[in-house]
Every structure is written in C-alpha cells, then in structure tokens.
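Q: Convert this sequence to structure tokens.
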Amino acid sequence: MELSQIRSFKKVAELQHITRAADALSVTQPTLTKTIRRMEQELEVPLLRHVGRNIELSQYGEIVYKYSRIAVNALDDMQNEINELKNVKEHRLTVAMNGIISVVPYVVCDFIKSRPDIQVDIIRGEKRVYDINIFSSDSADEEGMRLMEEKCMICMSEQNPLAAKDILSIADVEQQEFIVTGLRRAMYVILDHFCRENGFVPNIKIECDSVEGLLAMIEADVGISLVPMKTWNFAKFPGLVFREVQGKQISRYMYAKVREGSYETYAIRQFMDYLKKNFDAILAQKV
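A:
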C-alpha cells in the first residue's frame, strides 16, 4: 500500500464525500475512486458505505482511518524535523501570556540566556498566532503542563472595617465593592467563579488595567479585590491586609500549553523542557 493511497483515503474519511475529497486532493473523482477500490482489493474488505450522495466508513474503514492518521502525522512530523535541521539558524518561538505578566518575562529572559540560538517573541493574549500559551485558571485539571499553584486571598485596606476580622464570611465578601484588572482577565474570572459558586455576583466598582494602580486604590480603601499571593508584589503598599474566606480555599494554577494541532518544533521542545526543569527555581529567585 502506497503513502499516496493512505493520504487519499484519510481525506475521503475526513470529508465523507468523494467529490469534495477529490477537489481537496487536486485529482479527478474517477482517479480517487480507483484508488479506494485498489485499497479495498488489497485489504479484501469494503472500506466505505454509500448513503445517498455521501459515504460512511465501514467498520474496516474505521480501522484504516485510525491508522492512516497515525501514519500520515508521523511522516509529516518526520519531514518537519528534517526541515528544522536543514534550517537550524531559524529557531523561533512565540509565547502568549495571559494574566501572568509578572512572571513570564523573567522565565523568557532566563531561557534566552541559556539558549541564544532560539529567538523568542512574547505576545499578550492567545487570539494571535502563538506556539506556547502560558495562562492561569482556577481549575486544577486544565490541559497542559502545570507550572504552579498559588493561594489567593481577599485584599483590602487596613482602613476597611473588615480588616479587624481574622477571617471573612461569604456575607462579608458579598457586601463589598470590587476592583479588578479587567472583566476578561484571569483573576476576574477566578473571582467571578468563586462568587457565583457561593450564590452571588461580585459587585464590580472599577476596572483597572494596572496591578499597581489596583493595589493603590485598594490601599486608599476604594474597594477590595481577590489577589494571588505569590506572583504579585505588595512591597510598595504597606497599608494592605489579606484575609481568607472561612472554609474556602481559593487557588489559581499556572499552565503552559502547546497550541493544539501544532507540530512541536525544536524550539518548542526546548522551551517546554526548560520550564519543567527550571520554573520553580526562577519563580523563587525573581518573584
């Protein structure tokens, strides 16, 4: 069985239509039909069933499709890896960061120092094309490499009456006005999930794009917020206090994930391996 036959069958199985598959492969319909028939003759089983103008895979066709994907993907990866070695000077990587702005630049800088042969671009958000996305979530079960877990607490001014309490109740939090870094940012999403899980919607008073600006307003007793305790720097704001909510553990998790469906290039593999081996040490040293 030839690779071209396997590629052709894979396309037919994906589109479940001979004519559309032939167009996608830039061959004629009769040519593609003959290719499928030759495969059926070689395997001595029917691979397709006709349903009106469309087709469906037979139980044998499902097996062939499963292994055709493995074979084609493996061969494509082989070609990509060969192309990488032929163009070794062009190693490049784009890292998207979402809500971990204070950490990602340190990690990237340390990586670049150790691997000057790889060029790294950092972008904000994941809507643009990227290779690796570094993001945070309140879920402990996201796909990707988990880099860390950090505790989150309610942050308020020492002037706030709630500062006199050692621990807060849900009712205490529900009555407060919140300052957040943006309604699409990770910490707002975590706050919103927490509040809704406890029966109320957070009262958002101000959106502030700057973490330092947000902390300054909290210190001035304009509102409160939910903050991560490891990656935000509170040293400039001595008038802040931090409280837990009774019976509640609020955490955010940081992940690194390769863009779905993308080939893991040499640069991607090197960066992910670097994160796995060095992230904890960099975080402890820089943040």
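The mean pLDDT is 88.
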